[in-house]
Amino acid sequence: MGVDGRLRAVVGLAQAMAAACAPRDSVRAAARGARLAMDGSFAAISAWERERGRLRVLVNEGERRDGEEEFPEDESYPVHDFPEITEFLHERWVGGSGPHAWVDSAVGDRPGRRGDVLRRRGRGTCVVAPIVLSGRAWGELYVARDEGMADFDEDDAEFGEVLAAVIAAGLAQSDRLEEARRLAFTDPLTGLANRRAVDMRLDEALEEHRRSGAAVVVSLVVCDLNGLKKVNDTLGHAMGDRLLERFGSVLSLCGAMLPGALVARLGGDEFCLVSVGPSADEVVRVTEEVCLRAAELELGEGVACGVASTGDPIGPVKSSRRLFRLADAAQYKAKAARSAKPVVAGRDTAVVRLADAEPGGPGERRRFRGRA
Q1: Cα–Cα distances in Å, from 174 out to 20, 22, 44?
Q2: Contact predicate 264/194, CB 8 Å
Q3: Among 155, 245, 342, 352, which one is most buried in terms of CB atoms within 10 A?
């Protein structure tokens, strides 16, 4: 397709999205327009759900394989398996160069799982382009060609970037319709869940825990980001915000190792992770990974993490408030000790005593979270 043809394709894509009557129709028009513009056999658009640590497929368009539905109910992939999207903002284009698309091949040597997916589904090559809304990686455009078709090249990747930008403009229009609902449960800086979403999830999880006779394990990880004030004071609040965003991406990436986990920013330099189902040992292992990755960030001084899980000997948990008190007390001890690893309530009996101290007692932390 020549330059004129590509220009017509871009205009057609934008017009089709503008004419769509519903968000689903807009996303389908975007995928179809991108597939046709790039002479692809298949296209998909996925959204990065930071709080769930996953890429959720919104639409599959074109020649679908077994198991690929046009509008899948719950087709998603942990960002831990496809981590490139977590680097879009922070590593590749924070300097202002713009998001970059790339080409993957079923026979290429690029690391990652995309080549495996191409081979398994009988496709030879693909272009992956980040979709960016309001300066934040929102999701990705994926266009593939079947085996036997011509491979995509770097010119195609550059064209994919243009198409992703056009799609982003169209999605921004429809996205505003969902903005009020989303903001009610989302932290605006990091895109993670907020405290309201955490409270709702914990209440639901603990009810499930009670109904199951304690068979369902509920775990809470509380994280306090070290060194944020120093970054704000010495480098400015813009760099402090960058540190918060970067750690939020790390937490989202690691949280994806725990199926169904919810990742949130509680406010300021405090974050948390809610896990329902995985064992306490699994949650602790993931939290250790969070600590390791946070220590490697270019800003800040790592993170202090506390874990409280119904899978450990912490006594009965009748409310989310007690789980928060336990996790907060564990995090406080980790911070005071400058621990490079998480402190786990129940495995450290002093944490349980601290959390269960009478309000105002000598052993209690200055404050604990939780609703009255």
Answers
A1: 10, 8, 18
A2: yes
A3: 342
